[in-house]
Design a protein that fits this description.
By secondary structure, the protein is mostly helical. The protein contains two helices and no strands. It starts with a helix and ends with a helix.
């Protein structure tokens, strides 16, 4: 897991520019961040 995060982190800059708009090639960190943000929004709205 730690290696995956490290690899994704070092790749993220180039991957973000090269694959802009290609859903399948988003860096791991971006996916994780987007997912967590989504979860937080759901939690916040359910507590209203």
């Amino acid at each position: 897991m730690g290696k995956l995060v490290h690899d994704a982190g070092s790749r993220s800059c180039t991957a973000a520019t090269e694959n802009k708009g290609e859903r399948g090639h988003r860096p791991y960190i971006e996916d994780l961040t987007a997912h967590l943000r989504q979860e937080l929004n759901l939690a916040a709205s359910s507590f209203g």
